[in-house]
Amino acid sequence: NRDAVQQDLLAAATAAQGIWQRPVALGGVGRNFEDTDNGGANNIMPLLNIPAPPDGIEDNVVTNENAVYTLTVAGASELSISAEPTTWNYDMTMVVCRAESGTGDDTRMGWVYGIQYGDGTGTTPACDDV
Questions:
Q1: pTM (whole model) above 0.85
Q2: What is the rounded average pLDDT of the residues 1-24?
Q3: Where are the alpha helices (DSSP H) in the chain?
């Protein structure tokens, strides 16, 4: 079950990047996850490609056979998704955000993510809210 939950989280991380980039008129959030005019977390969660039955999405929560996923908007360009797996002992939290990398003339913005496990293992990315 751990692998299935990780796959759901990684699919959500990939979708979040596209949602952030896409203009509001085209179903995105116009580069701002926090903008309440976009509907906030309640409108973002259904767009994250976490598989769920029709009745499995409620506000910022998705429930499927793998876990219960809860979305938190942590900044204009940062999301956190917590997962409570159905058959694994530890919760997981994935953070996806834009971050600066490189130095000097080679500095650029990109997307980073990390999954933190309830047993204290995993990674947490360094995020820049830009």
A1: yes
A2: 93
A3: 2-21, 40-44
